[in-house]
Design brief:
Elements: H1 6-23, E1 48-50, E2 59-63, E3 70-75, E4 82-85
Antiparallel strand pairs: 1-2, 2-3, 3-4
């Protein structure tokens, strides 16, 4: 198995650190609000939510506004969102 070049590995680790740092940003007293979007309205349509039994993280998924072909997945646990290609997201 080939090893990833150091530059690529450094870039991936840097991206993970930045996403983790930004995931802690919030705009309300409880720390769970949306980040401000500089007077621009985002896509306020509801996400598709999958509820799991207690003690398991629920999952919400939605096509990414402004990025056709990509879908975002988030959970109710402290984890960074994941964005994956999805041909069903036409934009």
């Amino acid at each position: 198995m080939k090893r990833l070049p150091t530059r690529c590995l450094t870039a991936v680790l840097s991206a993970v650190i930045v996403v983790a740092a930004l995931a802690g940003c919030s705009s309300d007293k409880r720390g769970t609000g949306d980040s401000p979007v500089a007077n621009h309205r985002g896509d306020d349509s509801p996400a598709n939510v999958t509820n799991f039994p207690d003690h398991f993280a629920n999952i919400a998924t939605k096509c990414v506004a402004g990025a056709p072909g990509f879908r975002a997945f988030v959970t109710t646990r402290e984890a960074a969102p994941v964005v994956l290609p999805d041909p069903a997201c036409k934009g």
